[in-house]
């Protein structure tokens, strides 16, 4: 096999692993009537509340339109609220409600359990190697200059 063939095989393996992991997380979140994108919004807000929809979209690598629809649904479900920014009355800061904070915690716990059952079973030295390889790959992807905005 050539270097290119090996790289392509590993690429496809990584993509399939990502898809399979995302599906496993989606199955666990379904128990809370929560989608992966909704969970992403809620858990991101646990790190820093009061972001604008534009900041949230950039942080999650999705379009502003996708974030708008997600936030609309989360507002309707009573999980987040929009607060008008004093500095710009056209913009809103997104905040968790108590119900949203509780659901975010459950989503985080579901993901932590999955990680403990999978990545957590890898020996620390090998996990550190994997982490180093992923950082190296991230930098190679960034160096391509490709845009990172995507659909949610």
Automatic annotation (TrEMBL):
Pfam families noted in UniProt: MarR_2 (PF12802)
Annotated GO MF terms: DNA binding; DNA-binding transcription factor activity
Record-level GO BP terms: response to stress
Keywords carried by this UniProt record: DNA-binding, Transcription, Transcription regulation
Domain of life: Bacteria
Domain HTH marR-type: 1-139
InterPro entries, alphabetized: HTH_MarR-typ, MarR/SlyA-like, Tscrpt_reg_MarR-type_CS, WH-like_DNA-bd_sf, WH_DNA-bd_sf
PANTHER family: HTH-TYPE TRANSCRIPTIONAL REPRESSOR YETL (PTHR33164:SF43), TRANSCRIPTIONAL REGULATOR, MARR FAMILY (PTHR33164)
Name used for this protein in its record: DNA-binding transcriptional regulator, MarR family
